[in-house]
Design goal:
BirA Bifunctional Protein, domain 2; 634 residues; 8-stranded mixed β-sheet; ligase (chains A, B); alpha+beta; homodimer
């Protein structure tokens, strides 16, 4: 930072303009402080600033020297009133400064002490004994408030005399103030190169000190999670949210620059794109009513669809377990056969039910839609249909998984960036994913320098090197089989899960690969088909699919992508293999029956990208209002 | 458009670079066609292009002139083969061109005819009778395909000889092709100034002509709604989606430029921000299990919470009806009193139930969260808590209303831009909303010129004037009371709804105001408190709140905003007045108990903005996958 010497009087130089924020007439702290000179050039200007108190202290008025001789040492924070003249010093203050005796009495009754930190002062003031005979002179003091307004890491020192506002209202952490005053250079330049001498207090939002969760210093992140409405007032969460914002804009600027179109993908859907996790179900009020009708019909029918459905679910679980254990191929085949039959029965019953409902309800579509509506897991299939018309498209929105887990990398509601490109293949998607990933890193390094300096100071001191190396290098490229070979040769570590071909790599495997072996991002491609969703394109060997993952240190899989299967007969057989409800994918099958193209795309887990950039370890700390199993209280 | 004369031979001038799209090696049609010269400068270059057939025709090979004398007139679409030399003309073609007799025989058997449109040709080829004795010469023809790839309005003519690919596979509308070839200037410059002479077909995605919904020409928009996966292949929907994309990017660039932070607001919530509409309920699988437990408890308790809740709901409806009719103030007061009692009973029962559940379940929070989770209606309260820390924030995401309606302006899932600014007041929000609204219009006019030309041609021929006038002017500013006075004086129109103070204006009133009286956007402010949500700031008169709406011609209310109530006691009393479940707003009340500020903000209904720009009338035509009551089939 360039140091401006005292000789360079800002009053003599043309002052930079200090524009207030257009829609609130206050000056953002960023405008004031986020400069090479820390704001020195603005000294002497009048401004309105607003913000929340981070820390504060109250300093009692010291005695000015009885004579002009400067024999009494000034307290560090003492503001030299002489410069401003005495006109705003009240009579009482005059009295106080002249008669040391009165001052001593005050101190005995608890009014004294310099440099105390905030909050306790209020109680002490309250406990000062009343003096009915001679009314007690008011406690004259100066409040030093360090305020932040969220626009930058830096905070501003605001100095408020007790003659301007009651310090007890201002001092508690979290207090909101809007003040007007003059920017000054402090007598002694310490931590702050400028401060605001407030002479008007326009607004105070007080704090209930006993209940306000941020009253304590340094509340741990885990504890802050219970107060999502307050935690952006901490420097750490505010910094993370500014970086998150930069990543969001970098996403839009990258894709807009490349000519991609932003397409909003629906949240309410009938399509389970992945087929692996649990889904959130959605019901509106009408839909409940329909369900009641449904159950009436079941009873009169003598056949319960619900029971058959439950059986299908159970059988599906058995198939899943058999697939995982791979212990008995014959048992698996039999179970799959059994499941298919049950599913057929479900379809038949559903058809009967639908027919019955048609006679009951005049609004057929309403009934159709009332069943099996979910919150979307992934928008890639919907997005692909837009790619098959508009070429290159992307989407940025929330995606949902209802799985009950406490994983630090999972929340029920996470934001994803999904990309789909027509006429492109696996390598194209890998290149695009890699370029986008690097763009995000470079954008943050270029635009969030102060925020990243804070991250380096508090969370990850190697963040600059780590991110610069990542963005300037290339990820290690390995096929799934190569990864398996590499991990099989590892001798210094015993993995909990054994390797079996066809099985997804676990977090433990991936972590060893990127954290211990390569110490940099690894791109894994050509996965066994069992480990990936049905729409990934089958390779010529019939065993692997054209899918890839970008795995990064500490965080894990941050991007997953694939070339999509364009051959209708293979999509059919994959849907059958995975025993998916084919009628739900008819619209997607139609897409590939009519003007199918070779498409590829990928998904970036946006919240995990924020983790990767900041070095934090739990997604709950980087999502504004995190939702997970049993956690949604606003 | 500047016309380049023949003298300006593009071959002699330095050719502009023709970069393929980075991630698919094909050249986007936008790169090729979206230029002043329509792509003439690229003549002679080899490219790969991909797209979908919009229209096509097959032209049978005509006889070239028997002698060099140009006495035989060329058919309009005839390509002068002589220029390319005869090397790619097959022996059969040679034969055909020399012997008129053979040609006549073909024509008799259905092989002839120029300029027919697509599709039927296939059947005719199939019905050509086999000639086993002398094998029939293949039907030589040229396919002219007009293809579009979604990157721009313009389409490219691709010329494919039957010797390169079977025309029957290429001709149907919707067919996907990826072809390589040379850009040429057509012999006669008609509608197209360049065309692609394809000599390699790299991919064909055929179409099931009988089932493909876009086979017919000009399918109406209503019909297209049933095929959201295909409709962006129509020029209208593609154009709308490109404009929608521009509006999305303009949103991010506006707020980013002003220093706002993008904050992602949760979809799953317990908070009903508006309190007016119906909500979608969300359940995960665990949550269902909890509900079963719940009902068990009800029965053993001997008091059914569900029944009491139903009663509360019914009473709430009565209150609403009484409020609307305003017929009997005493009856309303009594009903409100009654409702409060019922709500108290609900609270008591819920407390009992919660206690019981605690003993049943070890995971208390899970149970808490399992009840009353909804899809968010508005993120403004959540956003305000971030504004109360970061200053100026915005959010762009989907919002939900489960109301059963066929309104052309409503869908269950609509995207909203929400904005919240700390330390700002009603006028600030109105100014910001107005600037943002104008920015959106100007951005589209500046960046989507070709798209808007198409809109002017097909949908709204006054769109340019309309949008330019809107963006360069200011909205009419009227208080709610002024609007009522103006509408009361209207004599030439009888409104269905009468005016009563305290009642929201209906679509009919608003339409008359902006479409008939002012013919431009109107900003209405200071609404009666009954017409707005609880968080709008009460004005000093105690009757109106600091809320506003921006109402635009044809579309209606496109932006709603307010200054938010910062005084905790007034928020309390507003929540009581509206009989809202206070425990759900505790987190929001906490926000204003601790460091409250004067905040203001607004919501832009993004989908309605696309309607306003394009002149379309139904939101279902501008939302990629619209969801409404009974409509969600993918």
């Amino acid at each position: 930072m360039a140091i401006i010497t005292r000789q360079q009087d800002p009053q003599l130089q043309p002052q930079p303009s200090l524009l207030p924020f257009k829609y609130s007439h206050r000056v953002l702290l960023k405008t004031l402080l986020d400069r090479q000179d820390g704001g020195r050039a603005f000294a002497g200007q009048r401004v309105v600033v607003g913000g929340w108190v981070k820390t504060s202290k109250e300093v009692q008025k010291p005695l000015p020297p009885p004579a002009p001789a400067a024999s009494v040492p000034h307290e560090e924070r003492f503001i030299d009133r002489e410069k401003k003249g005495d006109k705003d010093i009240s009579c009482v203050e005059m009295l106080q400064s002249r008669i040391p005796l009165i001052r001593s009495i005050w101190e005995v009754f608890g009014g004294g002490g310099y440099g105390r930190s905030h909050a306790p002062s209020r109680k002490r003031i309250e406990s000062a004994p009343p003096k009915p005979a001679t009314p007690p002179p008011p406690q004259l003091s100066t409040a030093y408030l360090l305020i932040t307004d969220g626009s930058c890491v830096a905070s501003l020192q605001v100095v408020v005399e007790s003659s301007v506002a009651q310090p007890s209202n201002l001092l508690p952490t979290g207090t909101c103030i809007l003040v007007e005053g003059q920017i000054e250079r402090p007598a002694k330049e310490g931590k702050h190169v400028i401060e605001l001498k407030a002479d008007k207090v326009l607004h105070i939002g007080t704090v209930d000190v006993d209940k306000y969760p941020l009253s304590k210093k340094r509340v741990p992140l885990e504890m802050l999670r219970d107060f999502p409405q307050f935690r952006p007032r901490t420097t750490t969460v505010a910094t993370v949210m500014r970086i998150r914002n930069a990543l969001s804009f970098a996403t839009h600027s990258f894709f807009n620059g490349q000519g991609f179109l932003d397409v909003q993908i629906p949240i309410i859907t009938t399509t389970d794109c992945e087929g692996f996790g649990k889904l959130f179900q959605v019901t509106g009020l009408e839909q409940k009513a329909d369900k009641q009708k449904l159950s009436t019909i079941h009873e009169t029918d003598g056949v319960s669809l619900d029971i058959v459905k439950a059986a299908a679910k159970e059988k599906s679980n058995i198939v899943e377990t058999l697939k995982r254990t791979e212990s008995n191929r014959e048992a698996l085949a039999a179970a799959v056969q059994d499941l298919r039959k049950t599913n057929e029965l479900v379809s038949q019953l559903e058809a009967i039910e639908k027919k019955n409902l048609k006679s009951l309800s005049s609004k057929d579509e309403a009934v159709d839609a009332s069943r099996d509506l979910f919150l979307t897991v992934s928008g890639r299939l919907h997005l692909e249909s837009y790619a098959c018309a508009l070429g290159n498209v992307y989407s940025f929105g929330p995606r949902f998984q209802a799985d009950k887990t406490d994983s630090a990398k999972h929340a029920s509601e996470m934001w994803m960036v999904e990309v789909e490109m027509a006429f492109s293949q696996l390598r194209d998607a890998m290149n695009c994913a890699s370029d986008y990933f690097n763009h995000l890193i470079m954008y943050v390094l270029e635009t969030c320098h102060e925020d990243m300096k804070f991250i380096a100071k508090r969370i990850d001191n190697a963040c600059f090197t780590r991110l610069q190396q990542t963005a300037s290098g290339f990820p290690e490229m390995l096929s799934y089989n190569e990864v398996i070979d590499i991990l099989r040769k590892v001798e210094d570590k015993k993995f909990e899960t054994n390797f079996k071909s066809g099985v997804a790599l676990t977090a433990e495997h991936l972590s060893y690969l990127v954290d211990t072996i390569y110490k940099k991002p690894v791109m894994i491609y050509d996965y066994p088909k069992e480990a990936k969703p049905f729409y990934c394109r089958l390779n010529d060997n019939g065993r692997t699919v054209a899918a890839f993952d970008l795995v990064v240190p500490k965080v894990g899989t941050i991007i997953s992508g694939s070339q999509n299967e364009e051959r209708i007969n293979i999509i059919h057989s994959r849907i059958n293999e995975l025993v998916l409800p084919r009628e739900k994918y008819e619209w997607y099958l139609d897409l590939h029956r009519n003007g199918t193209a070779k498409n590829s795309g990928f998904t970036l887990r946006f919240d995990l990208m924020v983790l990767f950039i900041t070095g934090l370890t739990n997604v709950r700390d980087v999502i504004p209002f995190p939702r997970s199993y049993g956690k949604a209280n606003n």
